[in-house]
């Protein structure tokens, strides 16, 4: 029994459930939200508790995570990624202060490791030895890596169009990879069949309500790294909605605990070619599916699987929604590289692209303080970096050629 | 003046130099080694000093680093990578205990960030705003990233055969990349000309003696993470020799400080297709150049630039030298992925391949405790992972096909 967890409540119909380890969706189809007894937790967990804690991972916050007291933290060191203040870039953008949270430095190089670490912990509790999901992206590689380290087996269903590099990473982590000749929906259905048949633990962020409880740790870290001083805005890229929902959950936890005295506004950034959630915000209407026209593959989700929590997060925070083109995304990749030494994948830098665009449109006050979360490592997608990075200066092995090449380009070393 | 640093001494002729920030080689051509006043440092720096320190980076050890008291730590968070104990893999290999240090989780995804962070710190001290090197590999990308974060410009000289992905990463970090149509030697000579002409700070690990002082922090971390209990062996891949030399320097520092009571033996692992240093050890003779026949590009160094320090490290530690084939390297990549959830690049996992080979040859005592350092992230070279990872199970979107595909392969979920 988790004494600090009250239970799970459907965000759609309000029905409540006991927080067993293998929770899935509500019978109405809605996604569940884990509820905590903050009064109880406050008795033994304070900001001061954290100060002496050496644990450099998301598990430093285990009092606010939905796990039993004796559940071991999974082996890979997930979280506690760096938060860099970027005064030069803030000045360039014309805002007060800017920080970049580089979550691409997680073990399998994306924020999704936070959800997969939680999945492994809950699988321990469920007594499961096998975890499954259907995905080709960061969710799959993070599951494969985190489960492998824990000695668990994984079955991962991918549509046959999945890029070979991503499949190779799954195979290297020892996952059993089933490539399905069919659409993503068909792949998902086969995975559902198999999960039901063999009783595997289910790692699907829109079905398993514990996963966004892992993701929420990114909010805890940001706020602790800022010494609990709330920034005006936190910007993040949005695909299926689970990540921004987790971010908001973490912030609300801290507010309920009294660790922070106000909440920031969220900046939800989607690709212009695939922005069903931001469109719903802009139109103040229900979301509708969209095509998936963007190079930012990790957020190319035309049919978001967690729209309820994501839209609630943006609205509750009085958030801003902004869409960016692929060119703006790749420009943000270069800016983060050049000004900050941070190399993010396209979807990873989309949040920063949104901040830049809001600045250009004058939609952020000049003194605003902003945190931008980079959600994945640029090494995940070198092909697009190559397309947009430009060309080196090419010379013969000759000093005179070097001098004239610099002169031609106006380079003055 | 650095009160804790005595000076620099040539490892070849013994001549001493003052430890100015822009030290290069000795006039005899030998590489310099930085010498410390351990008696002095011991007065204010102990193992207990470290216990309360929150700094999760290599700069937690700044009392043993060759920098002025007020030199700022560069912005990117380098070091303090995880050390994982791997009991399952230890049992599989038949040794007592095994730990894997995943240094691929550094900001630009390799151990080289430790040297580049030091280069940036020394460039601060030298008042330099520009750093240069000639490399296509991890040294270059780590320099470009760490310098960009510090607001410094970089000039990086690459031979024109450099892979496009690596050049793209350099360009994304804002480096001025000069692609030289010629050999590596010609590229190096042009870079030397430019560095001399414009007075740039020189980041070449075999010329700048401070760089291995950055790398030595990997030894500090391993030992602190092991609670100062020395393992029997530490295994690492070896290319130009700077990394194993840095590792050994760090261990000797700790021994001189009294932080550890004995030194481990080093395991120097090279690719069988390019092993000039291990050949010198095996033959107990001088090293001679070799061809560069291996897929482990980061250690494909036929003409090592730091042979003196590297050979001394292996010999002084009564180390073992072992060479592994490309197949053994790629097998180690899969083993680390499957058993540990660690994805290393080929050169990164070469150390582990060596441990496995020594076990198979019965050259390690069965109770031995071994640390294996993974020096770079597998995402740096996805192409080779794809070649060796195997194929997924391919099926139509049909449950019966799934069942028969599993049955055919003997998979029992």
Q: How does this model look, in words?
A:
- Two copies of one chain form a homodimer.
- In chain A, the strands form three sheets. In chain A, strands 4-5-13-10-11-12 form a six-stranded mixed β-sheet, sandwiched between helices. In chain A, strands 8-7-6-9 form a four-stranded parallel β-sheet, with helices on both faces.
- The first copy, chain A, is globular and about 75 Å long.
- Among the domains of chain A are: 205 residues, Rossmann fold (3-Layer(aba) Sandwich); 71 residues, Rossmann fold (3-Layer(aba) Sandwich).
- The first copy, chain A, has 413 residues and is of the alpha/beta class.
- In chain A, 40% of the residues lie in helices and 17% in strands.
- In chain A, helix 11 packs across helix 12.
- Strand 8 of chain A pairs parallel with strand 14 of chain B.
Brief write-up:
Chain A is α/β, with parallel strands linked by helices and 413 residues long.
List the helices and strands and how they pair.
2 copies of one chain form a homodimer.
Chain A: E1 5-10, E2 16-17, E3 32-36, H1 38-42, H2 47-51, E4 83-85, H3 87-93, E5 97-102, H4 112-126, E6 130-134, H5 138-149, E7 153-159, H6 164-172, E8 176-181, H7 184-198, E9 201-202, H8 211-215, H9 217-225, E10 233-237, H10 242-257, E11 265-271, H11 276-283, H12 307-316, E12 320-324, H13 326-340, H14 346-360, E13 369-374, H15 382-389, E14 393-396, H16 399-408
Parallel strand pairs in A: 5-13, 6-7, 6-9, 7-8, 10-11, 10-13, 11-12
Antiparallel strand pairs in A: 1-2, 1-3, 4-5
Helix pairs in contact in A: 4-5, 9-10, 10-12, 11-12, 13-14, 13-15
């Amino acid at each position: 029994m988790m004494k600090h967890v009250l239970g799970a409540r459907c965000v759609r119909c309000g029905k409540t459930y006991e927080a067993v380890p293998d929770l899935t969706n509500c019978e109405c189809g809605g996604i569940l939200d884990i509820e905590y007894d903050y009064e109880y937790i406050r008795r033994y967990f304070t900001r001061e508790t954290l100060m002496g804690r050496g644990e450099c991972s998301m598990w430093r916050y285990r009092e606010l995570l939905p796990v039993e007291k004796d559940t071991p933290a999974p082996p890979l060191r997930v979280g506690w990624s760096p938060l860099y203040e970027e005064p030069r870039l803030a000045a360039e953008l014309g805002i007060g202060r800017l920080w970049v949270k580089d979550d691409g430095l997680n073990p399998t190089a994306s924020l999704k490791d936070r959800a997969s670490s939680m999945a492994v912990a809950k699988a321990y509790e469920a007594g499961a030895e096998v975890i499954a999901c259907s995905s080709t992206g960061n969710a799959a590689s993070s599951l494969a890596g985190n489960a492998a380290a824990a000695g668990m087996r994984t079955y991962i269903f991918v549509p046959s169009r999945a890029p070979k590099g991503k499949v190779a990473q799954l195979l290297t982590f020892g996952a059993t990879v089933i490539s399905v000749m069919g659409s993503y929906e068909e792949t998902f259905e086969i995975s559902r069949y198999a999960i039901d048949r063999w009783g595997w633990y289910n790692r699907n962020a829109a079905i398993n309500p514990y996963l966004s409880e892992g993701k929420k740790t990114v909010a805890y870290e940001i706020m602790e790294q800022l010494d609990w001083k709330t920034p005006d805005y936190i910007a993040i890229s949005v695909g299926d909605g689970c990540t921004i929902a987790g971010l908001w959950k973490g912030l609300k936890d801290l507010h309920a605990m009294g660790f922070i005295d106000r909440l920031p506004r969220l900046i939800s950034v989607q690709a212009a070619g695939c922005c069903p959630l931001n469109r719903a915000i802009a139109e103040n209407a229900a979301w509708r599916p969209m095509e998936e026209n963007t190079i930012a593959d990790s957020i190319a989700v035309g049919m978001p699987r967690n729209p309820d929590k994501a839209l609630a997060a943006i609205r509750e925070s009085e958030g801003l929604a902004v869409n960016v083109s692929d060119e703006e995304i790749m420009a943000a990749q270069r800016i983060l590289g050049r000004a900050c030494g941070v190399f993010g994948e396209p979807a990873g830098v989309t949040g920063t692209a949104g901040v830049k665009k809001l600045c250009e449109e004058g939609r952020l006050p000049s003194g605003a303080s902003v945190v931008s979360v980079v959600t994945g490592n640029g090494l995940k997608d070198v092909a697009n970096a190559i397309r947009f990075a430009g060309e080196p200066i090419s010379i013969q092995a000759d000093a005179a050629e070097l001098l004239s090449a610099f002169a031609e380009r106006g380079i003055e070393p």
